[in-house]
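FORM 12-B: Structure-to-Sequence Request
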């Protein structure tokens, strides 16, 4: 089963790395954004299954962006991906709409395991690819 995703990060090279990992794990990239405002507009236009969301971005941070996305689409899955590894901030992110969280630097396995956390039904198809 395929899942459709967006990657939101102000660093283009990180968007590319994450996109490649998720495509290899059976995902279909339907867009990229470099800030929170672009992310919200893209979510509205494309309705992905999953958003990979950085915490520190221009215009809106990850928590503000996740809150806006979840207000519009509470069922949408969001995985945070950031260098921020302070437990209090990660907890706030999770209560603000993040369904999972990966700390940078990350491995391919970190990303894939968090996709499986939010989409456990993909276990067979993803594990067969990695």
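FORM 12-B RESPONSE
SEQUENCE OUT:
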């Amino acid at each position: 089963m395929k899942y459709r995703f967006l990657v939101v990060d102000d660093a283009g090279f990180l968007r590319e790395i994450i996109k490649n990992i998720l495509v290899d794990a059976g995902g279909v990239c339907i867009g990229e954004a470099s800030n929170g405002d672009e992310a919200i507009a893209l979510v509205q236009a494309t309705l992905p299954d999953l958003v990979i969301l950085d915490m520190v971005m221009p215009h809106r941070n990850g928590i503000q962006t996740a809150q806006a996305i979840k207000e519009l689409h509470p069922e949408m899955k969001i995985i945070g991906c950031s260098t921020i590894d302070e437990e209090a901030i990660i907890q706030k992110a999770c209560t603000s709409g993040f369904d999972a969280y990966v700390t940078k630097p990350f491995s391919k396995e970190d990303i894939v395991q968090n996709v499986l956390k939010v989409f456990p039904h993909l276990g067979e198809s993803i594990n067969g690819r990695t």
